[in-house]
Specification:
InterPro entries: Acyl_CoA_acyltransferase (IPR016181), GNAT_dom (IPR000182), NAT_camello-type (IPR050769). It is built from 4 helices and 5 strands, in the order E-H-H-E-E-E-H-E-H. It has about 160 residues and is of the alpha+beta class. The chain has one domain: Aminopeptidase, CATH 3.40.630. Strands 1-2-3-4-5 form a 5-stranded mixed beta sheet, sandwiched between helices. The longest helix is centred in the middle third of the chain and has 15 residues.
């Protein structure tokens, strides 16, 4: 349960380093900070994006980053979870569920008719999390890395 010292809010420019650390942990690699910061700042200014952070005792412990767009194949506004990450020491405490629930609320307020997420096939624990939230796996996602088009191995941390 959220208290005065635990709450979810929209991220600000001051949250960039904390969100960066969460996303690097999720991706199991260090991303280039300058590029991350540039994208983070751009998304803060774009109404089609929303980054929500979970704060506990004044520290960001989790984040969920959303993109909302009108999609031709739905003919509706759809919300996609781009990233969801909780600090390793805070996992399995319901923070991810609270972030997900708040993201759904935000998406509905923004006129979205559904929420989607792409998730690496190797993240089976994450799959169970989304299934427990009532989500269904209806799609395949295909990728082509322009820097290494011959690389077909699915691995985390690259």
């Amino acid at each position: 349960m959220e208290s005065e010292t635990e709450f979810i809010r929209s991220s600000t420019a001051d949250d960039c380093r904390d969100v960066y650390a969460l996303i690097c942990n999720m991706e199991e690699k260090e991303l280039p900070y300058a590029a991350f910061e540039r994208i983070f700042q751009q998304q803060l200014k774009d109404a089609d994006y929303a980054c929500l952070v979970y704060v506990s005792d004044g520290k960001v412990k989790g984040c969920i980053n959303l993109r909302m767009e009108y999609q031709l194949h739905h003919a509706e506004r759809i919300c996609e979870i781009m990233e969801l990450s909780v600090s390793p020491e805070c996992r399995s405490r319901g923070i991810g569920k609270q972030l997900f629930d708040e993201a759904c609320h935000h998406a509905r307020q923004e006129g979205c008719t559904q929420i989607e997420v792409c998730c690496n096939r190797l993240r089976t624990r994450t799959h169970r999390f989304y299934e427990a939230r009532g989500m269904h796996n209806f799609h395949y996602k295909f990728s082509l890395n322009f820097a290494s088009p011959q690389d077909s191995e699915n691995r985390l941390g690259r």
